[in-house]
């Protein structure tokens, strides 16, 4: 009897332990530009292919039972890129959101954007608000996209929001603990990432989820983001399952 490809793709590879999968995977999708250059293509083609890689990873997480995926799509520092590239990326985010919303609904994806969303183009803000509103009752995979996001800036805005509540007399200084602090981060309610994957070789966190990443296992691969496929993800998960996570204990 032949097993269809789709059945095979949906199955967790047998060497992975389904009880020890990360419950939240975060990705720094680096290397789109270098990938494009190597193919003799313009940089924007790398970003386009990057969207396909992200879609595949989202589906793979769903198939393999990983409940949360967070992707770093645009950092507060990325505004420093050439204006044509920034404009292309903003247009790409908007177009992808519009195009994929129906499928995300069908696949029960709950999408959320984190970052300084007010600093994004108005039409993108509207598309973001619509996608979050339409998918808010979905109970499948939690897909978070960090856009105009900076970890230091997120921590600062949480401090300001907490200070404001203290000033209003709503909160006592002594009551500020880790839980209260986390409630004021963009990621409130989301479990912290167990695994951070960075593609394209750089060994940096690049201002991504600074607070949330305290105990994440970090996996860096030389593979460029557009080439990061199921096989590469399988390798990352196998590597993760070999780690001894002690959380500061012996
Ligand atoms: C880094 O590669 C990648 C980005 C700054 C953009 C990533 C965005 C996407 C893949 C689109 C995601 C879309 C949605 C809707 C979530 P780079 O350009 O820094 O590569 P380089 O280091 O080789 O130049």
From TrEMBL:
Job of this protein: Catalyzes the condensation of isopentenyl diphosphate (IPP) with allylic pyrophosphates generating different type of terpenoids.
Official protein name in the record: Isoprenyl transferase
Cofactor, how bound (note): Binds 2 magnesium ions per subunit.
Cofactor(s) essential for the protein: Mg(2+)
Family in the record: Belongs to the UPP synthase family.
Known EC number: 2.5.1.-
Active site (record annotation): 30, 78
SUPFAM superfamilies documented for this protein: Undecaprenyl diphosphate synthase
GO biological process, one term: polyprenol biosynthetic process
GO terms assigned for molecular function: ditrans,polycis-polyprenyl diphosphate synthase [(2E,6E)-farnesyl diphosphate specific] activity; magnesium ion binding
Protein residues bound to Mg(2+): 30, 217
Sites where the protein binds substrate: 31-35, 43, 47, 75-77, 79, 81, 198, 204-206
Record note on quaternary structure: Homodimer.
Record InterPro entries: UPP_synth-like, UPP_synth-like_CS, UPP_synth-like_sf
Coiled coil region boundaries: none
NCBIfam families in the cross-refs: PRK14830.1 (NF011405), PRK14831.1 (NF011406), uppS (TIGR00055)
This protein's UniProt keywords: Magnesium, Metal-binding, Transferase
Uppermost EC category: transferase
């Amino acid at each position: 009897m032949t097993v269809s490809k789709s059945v095979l793709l949906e199955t967790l590879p047998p060497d992975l332990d389904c009880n020890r999968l990360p419950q939240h995977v975060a990705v720094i999708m680096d290397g789109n530009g270098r990938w494009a250059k190597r193919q003799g293509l313009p940089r924007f083609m790398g970003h386009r292919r990057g969207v396909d890689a992200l879609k595949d990873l989202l589906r793979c997480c769903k198939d393999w039972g990983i409940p949360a995926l967070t992707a770093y799509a645009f950092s507060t520092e990325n505004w420093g890129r050439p204006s044509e590239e920034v404009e292309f990326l903003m247009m790409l985010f908007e177009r992808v959101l519009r195009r994929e919303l129906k499928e995300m609904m069908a696949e029960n994806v709950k999408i959320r954007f984190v970052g300084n969303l007010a600093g994004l183009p108005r039409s993108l803000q509207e598309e973001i608000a619509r996608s979050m509103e339409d998918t808010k009752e979905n109970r499948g995979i939690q897909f978070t996209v960090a856009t105009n996001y900076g970890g230091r800036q997120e921590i600062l805005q949480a401090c300001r929001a907490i200070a404001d509540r203290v000033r209003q007399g709503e909160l006592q200084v002594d009551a500020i603990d880790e839980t209260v602090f986390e409630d004021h981060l963009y990621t409130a309610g989301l479990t912290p990432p167990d695994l951070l994957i960075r593609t394209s070789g750089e060994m940096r966190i690049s201002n991504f989820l600074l607070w949330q990443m305290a105990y994440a296992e970090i996996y860096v691969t030389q593979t460029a983001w557009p080439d990061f496929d199921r096989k590469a993800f399988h390798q990352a998960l196998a590597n993760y399952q070999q780690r001894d996570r002690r959380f500061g204990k012996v």
